[in-house]
Amino acid sequence: MTATVELENVCKTYQMGLVAVEALRGVSLSVRPGEYVSIRGPSGCGKSTLLNLLGCLDRPSRGRYLLGGEDVSLLDDDTLSAIRGTRVGFIFQSYNLIQQLTVLENIEVPLFYRDVSPAHSQARATELARLVGLEDRLGHKPYELSGGQQQRVAIARSLANDPLLILADEPTGNLDSASGAEILRLFDELNRQGRTLLLVTHDDKISQHATRTICLRDGLVESDTSN
What we know:
The chain has 227 residues and is an alpha/beta fold. It has a single domain, classed as P-loop containing nucleotide triphosphate hydrolases (Rossmann fold, 3-Layer(aba) Sandwich). Helices cover 33% and strands 28% of the residues. It is built from seven helices and ten strands. The protein has helices at 47-54, 77-87, 103-112, 118-131, 147-158, 177-192, 204-207, and strands spanning 5-16, 19-31, 36-40, 62-67, 70-71, 88-91, 165-169, 197-200, 212-217, 220-226.
């Protein structure tokens, strides 16, 4: 079975004036389809850099990144943008919803960029809203929703294009404990359905929901364990 994610000795160096900063110093890892992986580590360990690379928001300085078996390490910006829109679903701590759009319209956004017909787009978005328990909020704007509901909209949006990989960056960071627990239960259910999830968190209790935890330190994989 082809790995969803395959990193081979990936390095990322940022040039800060005359100083070269190594954010990742040779990371190799593989994520199989259907795995639920958490990435942990102290501030500055390389979590954000790794997330940007996995989401095709950036390229490695050295090494290879294969997404669904395709080497995306050296692709141009337009091709990477197309891959982000079709193969990767993003969930952010701050939701990143468009305030002027309704719940239904926010979920439809990824489909809009693929020129999906309005009828199919609305049907797909309605189906996903039902999946996350928001079928009675389709016409609401984000400011009319609780934080937990906004994050559920973001989760539905991440699923719109049926991606290979879902990346979640501190997805419960802005939520109270009850809302955060609801979001984690939803992630658990998505994983039971076969979704491949990769979640960045600093919280050990949250990482225990995953079936595997990768800890980074100083730009390297410090440990990779099953939960």
